[in-house]
Design a protein that fits this description.
heterodimer, A: about 290 residues, alpha/beta, Rossmann fold, nine-stranded mixed sheet, 8 helices, about 20% strand, globular, B: alpha+beta, three-stranded mixed sheet
Chain lengths: ~290, ~110
């Protein structure tokens, strides 16, 4: 179980990491999850005085009482997610040092993340090395799909965990060792809530929504959409069959995130993807999201 | 259900930061705009504390109200949720306060 996450089952249960090689049989690694321990910054106050009710007889001397029986207050002033943040910053430095542009791709299940990645790898893979980290609760189905495009891929299975965390990414990076100057996609677990809270150390956050979901998704999940550098509206090829107002969706995005790039695309037909490829190639994080 | 993750994070952080003694109480701050629901953390905390030195400890939650600033007129105002609108018409507010997820202190014997 990850240090910041109680949702991956019983203590000691490990998420699994699979590196898919070209010859097809993945190597399985236990995920030890030995998080680096942050220093305790707290300072310890002297034991507090012994409070007595008025009129209470003072029947013992304080000097004789063992100090361990006295309650004392320890000031911690520590971020609850501080450990994840620390590991995320290490990942960020590791990636920057190798000039790897890591994109954390997030959406609800079924919005088209894997289809988008398959198409992106096929299009950009000729000009830049691409590696992919696939996060799912179970199976390596998505990793198999990505592997068939020629990209190097690692599958993380989170078990019952609902998001990736920085430690999982750290292990995956060590396994995958993305090439210098490459593009790295991290396909997060399909979920619009929990992944928003966990910095992985990525260079940019891309959030995918699809026309088969509601136009109000940005308002219902403001944390996720607010933290996005680029927002893709997928499945626009289905618009003739749906009651989905694109302008209304974009207006809702603007209420939570005025600066993100919003791209209307179809990962199935390729419509609008040139703008996505341009954004990836430019590594444009000038419209830095509010985290 | 990331509140379970948050509760687990509290228990593990406290166990590391305070290596000895029984923990009687933990005081945490949860910002109104943090995306974390205090009641859910309370609900999960007891279960996460079971079998640790925090078992039975009291969880005191200090709710930190949201404070935002209009990017247009620079006025500061209370924010109950992430989606807010300034009286001047600007629909986007910069968050100044309310994202806190902090362990403030612990009481130990």
């Amino acid at each position: 179980m990850c240090a910041t996450c109680g949702c991956s089952g019983s203590p000691g249960e490990a998420s699994t990491l699979l590196l898919l090689h070209d010859h097809g049989h993945p190597h399985e690694h236990g995920h030890a999850h030995d998080h680096a321990h942050g220093e305790a910054h707290g300072h310890v106050h002297a034991p507090h005085g012994h409070a007595h009710e008025h009129g209470e007889a003072h029947g013992h001397t304080h000097d004789e009482a063992p100090p361990s029986t006295h309650a004392r207050t320890v000031q911690l002033e520590q971020e609850i997610l501080g450990k994840n943040r620390l590991i995320a910053e290490r990942n960020r430095g590791w990636l920057q040092g190798r000039n790897v542009f890591a994109v954390n791709l997030m959406s609800s299940p079924g919005s088209g993340k894997t289809t988008l990645l398959e198409r992106t790898v096929r299009h950009l893979g000729k000009s830049v090395a691409i590696a992919v980290i696939e996060g799912d609760q179970e199976t390596r189905l998505d990793a198999e799909r990505i592997r068939s495009t020629g990209a190097r891929v690692v599958q993380i299975n989170t078990g019952t965990g609902c998001h990736l965390d920085a430690e999982m990414l750290r292990h995956a990076l060590l396994e995958l060792t993305p090439a210098i100057g490459s593009l790295l996609f991290v396909e997060n677990v399909g979920n619009l809530v929990c992944p928003a809270l966990f910095d992985l150390g990525e260079g940019a956050r891309a959030v995918l929504a699809s026309t088969t979901e509601g136009e109000d998704k940005p308002l219902k999940y403001p944390h996720m959409f607010r933290a996005a550098d680029v927002i893709l509206l997928n499945k626009v090829d289905l618009l003739p069959h749906l009651h989905f107002d694109v302008d209304r969706f974009i207006a809702h995005v603007r209420l939570v995130n005025p600066s993100a790039n919003v791209l209307s695309v179809s990962a199935t037909t390729g419509e609008g993807l040139e703008a996505w490829y341009r954004w990836l190639t430019a590594r444009d994080v000038s419209a830095r999201a509010d985290r | 259900m990331h509140e379970l993750a948050i509760s687990q994070g509290i228990v593990e952080s406290v166990c590391e930061a305070v290596p000895e003694g029984k923990v009687l109480a933990v005081t945490i701050e949860i910002g109104a705009l943090s995306g974390v629901v205090s009641d859910s953390v309370r609900f999960c905390f007891d279960a996460c504390a079971r079998g640790t030195r925090l078992e039975g400890a009291r969880l005191d939650v200090v709710d930190v109200p949201g404070l935002g600033r209009c990017g247009s007129c620079r006025r500061e105002m209370a924010m109950a949720e992430l989606v807010g609108r300034c009286a001047c018409g600007n629909p986007f507010l910069e968050v100044l306060r309310g994202r806190e997820l902090r362990i403030r202190s612990v009481e130990v014997t």
